[in-house]
Amino acid sequence: MKSQTLDIKSITPRCESFRSSFSPFSDVEISLPPKICKTPEPWIMMKNRHRRLTLDEFCLSPNSPDVISYDESQRVCDTVLPSEQTLIGVRTIDLSTLKQVIKDHVSVEIIDCRYPYEYNAGHIKGALNLWNEDLLLNHFPIEKDVPQSPSILLFYCEFSGTRAPALARHFRRTDQHSCNPYLIYKEVYLIDKGFCEVFEHYNEICEGEYIEMNDERFVIKKKECSRIIAYIRKGRQVSSPRYSNITPLSLSAPSV
């Protein structure tokens, strides 16, 4: 005796039609609610305005946590220098403004965020080599009841595309999230296009020479600096014996 197989596919349409005939909503047309248009994210708004950003490598990623809201960035819009707002809450100044502010302002602190071997080879005159978060916050403390500083802080790295924006953003957010009802360091800026452009166009305000971060002579030192920064960002102290002998002094450029 042959066993009969049941064709499920042939029965399914009949079941569906049978079920729908008893449904009280069979003749009711169901419409989905209209989609709600959300406010465009800041990076989309900037893109739609056809405005070229100066920190493309750092803050143009749609999913980047570094992009902040306009409400937060507008808290520090009344600055003293002519500058351009970025998506990380720190404004940029061009090279002509840099030259003028060095000439006219006494209380200017220039922060070189490059690695020590780059800084030791050459840098902007008077710049401080504060290349990681610990060095930066030790030199410019952010604590409760510290009076507002009159200093103008100018950050730069090789191209001002990654390292300087990262440090400046961290510094700004630390200041914003402190217990003070004001910013201790209100005048914080990035030098647009970094040391590469400064050295090329305004060599008179620089000393030494310009070497690239990826210079083949410093591959090992570059890796050491990157590891130290990674440890600091994870909230660890650089106390491991493996890194205890790595200091800014030991990362100097070779004599030429």
Automatic annotation (TrEMBL):
Taken from the record, one Pfam family name reads: Rhodanese
Q: What GO biological process terms are annotated to this protein in UniProt?
A: cell division; G2/M transition of mitotic cell cycle; positive regulation of G2/M transition of mitotic cell cycle; positive regulation of G2/MI transition of meiotic cell cycle
Q: Which PROSITE patterns match?
A: RHODANESE_3
- Record keyword Cell cycle present: yes
Q: Name one GO cellular component term.
A: nucleus
**Any one GO MF annotation of this record:** protein tyrosine phosphatase activity
The alphabetized UniProt keywords are: Cell cycle, Cell division, Hydrolase, Protein phosphatase
| Gene3D superfamilies for the chain | Rhodanese-like domain
The Rhodanese domain is annotated at 104-207
What's the EC number here? 3.1.3.48
> Quick check: keyword Hydrolase in the entry?
yes
Q: Which family does it belong to?
A: Belongs to the MPI phosphatase family.
Please state what the protein is called.
protein-tyrosine-phosphatase
- Name the source organism: Entamoeba nuttalli (strain P19) (Amoeba)
What phylogenetic lineage does the species belong to? Answer: Eukaryota, Amoebozoa, Evosea, Archamoebae, Mastigamoebida
